[in-house]
Fold:
Amino acid sequence: MTGQILNGNSMDDYPLTLTSIVDRAERFHANRGVISRRPSGDVNRTTYGEVAGRARRLAHGLAALGVRDGDPVATMLWNQSEHLELYFAVPAMGAVLHTLNPRLFPEELSYIVNDAQDNVIIVDESLLPVFETIRDSREFAHVVVVSHTGDIPAGMLDYESLVANNEPIEWPVLGEGRAAAMCYTSGTTGRPKGVVYSHRALVLHSLVVALPDQFAVSARDTILPVVPMFHANAWGLPYAAALAGAQLVLPGPQLDSESVLDLLAAEHVTMTAGVPTVWMGVLSSLDAEPDRWDLSALNRLIVGGAAVPRSMLEGFDRHELSIVQAWGMTETAPLGSVCRVPEDLDQASNSDRYNYRIRQGVASPLVDIRARDDEGNLIAWDDTAMGELEVRGPWVAASYHHGQGAASFTADGWFSTGDVVRIDPRGCIRICDRSKDLVKSGGEWISSVDLENQLVAHPDVAQAAVIAVPDDRWGERPLAVVSLHPDVDPSVDKLRDHLAQDFAKWQLPDRFEFVSEIPSTATGKVKKSELRKRFTTEP
Ligand code: AMP
Structure:
């Protein structure tokens, strides 16, 4: 006989599903507030109890429309209580919440709804014009409208009736490996790719998001996610808030700085989150009118999605508002790392502390990181060597939907992020470059390759390269470097008009530089590093 105990089966094999979070919100946080600002500016107040109760009815209504286990349910909604109802209802009924980004170009959206095979779509009334641009590209079985005016276009269904006319259901028992939600990323070369999140992944993600050194979500918080619920689960905040019992303030479509500040002050928000572009605008408004808003309740702003410039950290510090930088991706659900100043830097100089805070942070618990150089060797964590960051963990994608983009996953099970980093001896990462050929402007991606292909399709253009250049407001903007065929006169207007046929206005390069020849490497690739050096001035 040995004293060996290898089997842990004596513990309950309880599945980690979002249903537990939904149930908890309904049972223990029933009276905590969910506040939505409507497109009209009116504020609607409800509670987790009501949201969860309505989610049960909504699930019944969706099932009556034919939504079955594993079916995607698409949403084209803002941050609003109906979106939270769908965050609850769709995964808990065993279907898959597919959030759509209405800011994408119609061609991308059309591709996405067809790739995901969405048959039921829920659209906010204010987004019907966007929906119209993709309407003909897919035959949806049902289009459900969240109306604020009571008008429902012919052939579409009323969301409120779907909730009101159905009895609440009991949630089915699901396995933790079941798909709960999906989101497409356009942050890769080629077509957008679907990332499917399991229940287990989102439950573990919510638990870690809530930890004190991560986003520190508690029942005492009132959270305003500026980050949209259509982008990577709004950084996990809706589920983490429901789990902890934090109040949620959902800002709707008005995300200009004054509207954000009004809501932060009026609702005594304690924590908010969004991309740097939003906070740049907010900072200018605060600088212009420092006493206009009472933000004494606000104790942290989680900022990520793009690098946080030092000037922004300093700017908010002047208003006694503390920014915490986080890094993540659609493929990582999205939390990957958080930058919290370690205790031993408490007494360090301001400059040392800022040098730390501009970094993307230390990997979140349960997330593994490593980085490899061009030769495929692991880099030392000496803050000097540079390599592409690879991650793995319980909420990191192991593949894309339909097995696309397989090259992003290593043979030994890591996801290659396309972010080039240095890692310091503490394990704190600093993004220095990007191996993916993309520009991130205001939190949204623009493909350099797509712009280049379109430029060279113009009869005047011999060669074209698009690079990201730093921009005060948007983080990055595209700059096009173009060499023309002999004897043609450079014309920015002509090239811009040509691109405007296929790209949204915000995706068009702000600057065009004409050169006689575009530098290339020995292997014939455009030497973007040289172009960046030549045309970039730090903002
Ligand atoms: P997305 O999947 O659209 O959320 O984009 C993820 C990408 O955004 C990452 O791979 C990075 O390139 C970029 N990103 C996210 N957070 C940060 C950050 N804190 N600093 C710099 N880049 C970031």
